[in-house]
Amino acid sequence: MAQRGHHHVASSQKALMLELKSFQDEPVEGFKITLVDESDLYNWEVAIFGPPNTHYEGGYFKARIKFPIDYPYSPPAFRFLTKMWHPNIYENGDVCISILHPPVDDPQSGELPSERWNPTQNVRTILLSVISLLNEPNTFSPANVDASVMYRKWRDSKGKDREYAEIIRKQVLATKADAERDGVKVPTTLAEYCIRTRAPPVDEGSTLFYDDYYDDEELDDDEEEDEDCCYDEDDSGTEDS
């Protein structure tokens, strides 16, 4: 039994080291990633920059990812440290998202097994899923019922009911002090947010990560192609339900 535990530790540490290296080689746009403690691979600190043209533009949201010993066979836990008002984020900051749920077949959950965690997922897919969730909440099984009701009012009124947007705007403003304290410049334009990956100089910018998520040709395509990179407020729930 002890030998199996050692095997899990060795394989999960190897997986996490490879992922950390991959973030340095091919960073993900809109994120800053560090280890909470250099000697502990199982706790990562993430700062998420709010995508431009969304409610979260200019925001600097801190979170922690805690990995289990048997990662990647079991999913990590993702918790926001920054106060977040969102249908799928619990009051304590825990994110409720299918990709972080263990791969069990549970018909009661309304989730397909294919939507849940599997060992081919990784931190990159989690981060992109969280960004997608921020803009396109799942209101079918909310973690925060009040936020879900308020979001639906905003969506169904085509943005005329401003209560949901105003709460987020205030939370975004409140994060500016954190960004200043950490010496971080938050991107506020699409050009800054979607900058193509360049190897940063060793002495500066080495912890500010952006993703080379698509080819140059795609940048010239329809705006719909930008969905994985940047979200437009008008596309995230202002259509008829």
UniProtKB/TrEMBL annotation:
Keywords noted in UniProt: ATP-binding, Nucleotide-binding, Phosphoprotein, Transferase, Ubl conjugation pathway
SMART domains: UBCc
Keyword Phosphoprotein in record: yes
GO molecular function, a single term: ATP binding
Pfam families according to UniProt: UQ_con
UniProt domain UBC core: residue ranges: 11-177
Origin: domain of life: Eukaryota
UniProt-annotated catalytic positions: C96 (glycyl thioester intermediate)
Feature: compositional bias, Acidic residues: 212-241
Protein name: E2 ubiquitin-conjugating enzyme
Encoding gene, per UniProt annotation: LOC107593326
